[in-house]
Amino acid sequence: MTGPGHLEPAASATAAAAAVADAHRREWAFVLAATARVTRDIDLAQECVQDAYVAALDAWARDGVPDKPGAWLTTAARRRALDALRRDTRLRSKLPLLVEPEAVPAPDGTEDGDVIPDDRLRLVFTCCHPALARPAQVALTLRLVCGLSTVEIAQAFLVPEATMAARVTRAKKKIATARIPYRVPQEHELPDRLDAVLTVVHLLFTTGHTAPGGTALVRPELVERALDLARMLARLMPDEPEVRGLLALLLLTDARRATRTGPDGRLLLLAEQDRTGWDAGAIAEGTALVVHALRTARPGRYALQAAIAALHASAPDYARTDWAAVLARYDDLYAVWPSPVVALNRTVALAEVAGPAAALAAVDDLAADGRLAGYRYLPATRADLLRRLGRTAEAARAYGEALALCDNQAERDFLAGRLAGLGRIR
């Protein structure tokens, strides 16, 4: 028998493992950021946090899962970090002629001029170091701070997994060889790092909004984390139009979350969603932010994406969307951000304004371009346009291509349903 509040050993180990896995998904960013604030060394902070998670497996199986797993992990990781710093300090005191003196951080990790109010946001700004190339800044931050897998980051960047793994490894090696310290940027340094930080938050949200793999369409913990970071950014830099634009984009996009799947888990397209189930409060807040963000002389990519989202949110139904205005906004967006993904998304509006044949020609041009090779939404979009044009054999092949590239089960079920609807069984 075991005492009250304890689990049987076998069940306890299983429960502990599940709790540790859940804490890794939900708490990694908090724990790493709090630990890095002490160490000012990302690699050391990672080691200490990983040790804390390993220790939790035994401790939680023995003693039960704590009420606040994140706090337990943070305490354990920071203790390991402080022990490592004390050992380093003792070594330096014994070898004063062999080691260059360095400033030792205070036990609470504080430093003068620290204007960023949250450990997680502080770590994002810190990892977006200008000594690294922009893609490396974003990729490293998503991997270390946000806990995304290399596969997920590679999909977000539209590059092979091996390419992304090499990019992250090179970035970490450069930090080590160049002795780039963990140092929170001063207030005047924040604007130079802002675009990378905005990109991190946007890609984090995108990965959560439509999960690249798994059975669920949405990963709520990533969406909530991105929204938290965006709100903190808005409080930190309220006069930056792109900060307002990003928060507006996230609010307006996430407002549809509850209606994106049916009761049976089936994916619902924008035309099928019950708009009375959209979050009216988020739409109102996001729309107000869009108005402010668009007042700048040349709106940026987040403000313009938010403006497109606002047009969808304000339409009474899909058919009465102001598609001409949406298409014009996509033209504005492509002018400031000539991304092939933007061009592909634009074809949805083009199909409504000029017809599916015109949109298909644009999609075929993008396919010939090659930059979207391996991007599942390219053949999926092409398949839908071919279906609308009655070219069912070609549509079936395109749906098959999209299925081969898709790992998210909700999206796979949708594509398979469309394929079956063409009268062809996969």
Written overview of the protein:
- The termini are far apart.
- This protein has 18 helices and 2 strands.
- Among the domains are: 9-94, Orthogonal Bundle (Rna Polymerase Sigma Factor, Chain: A), CATH 1.10.1740.10; 355-426.
- It is globular and about 75 Å long.
- With 426 residues, it is mainly alpha-helical.
- The protein has helices at 9-39, 42-63, 69-94, 119-127, 134-144, 150-157, 161-177, 190-209, 220-236, 241-254, 280-293, 301-314, 323-336, 340-354, 356-369, 377-388, 392-405, 409-421, and strands at residues 213-214, 407-408.
Radius of gyration: 24 Å
Low-pLDDT stretches:
1-8, 95-112
Ends apart, CA distance between termini:
54 Å
Number of helices: 18
SSE string: HHHHHHHHEHHHHHHHHHEH
What is the strand and helix layout of this fold?
Blueprint: H1 9-39, H2 42-63, H3 69-94, H4 119-127, H5 134-144, H6 150-157, H7 161-177, H8 190-209, E1 213-214, H9 220-236, H10 241-254, H11 280-293, H12 301-314, H13 323-336, H14 340-354, H15 356-369, H16 377-388, H17 392-405, E2 407-408, H18 409-421
Parallel strand pairs: 1-2
Helix pairs in contact: 1-2, 1-3, 1-4, 2-3, 5-7, 5-8, 6-7, 8-9, 8-10, 9-10, 10-11, 10-12, 11-12, 12-13, 13-14, 14-15, 15-16, 16-17, 17-18
Briefly characterize the structure:
The chain is mainly α and 426 residues long. It has 18 helices and two strands.
Key terms:
mainly alpha; 2 strands; two-stranded parallel ribbon; disordered N terminus; 426 residues; globular; Rna Polymerase Sigma Factor, Chain: A
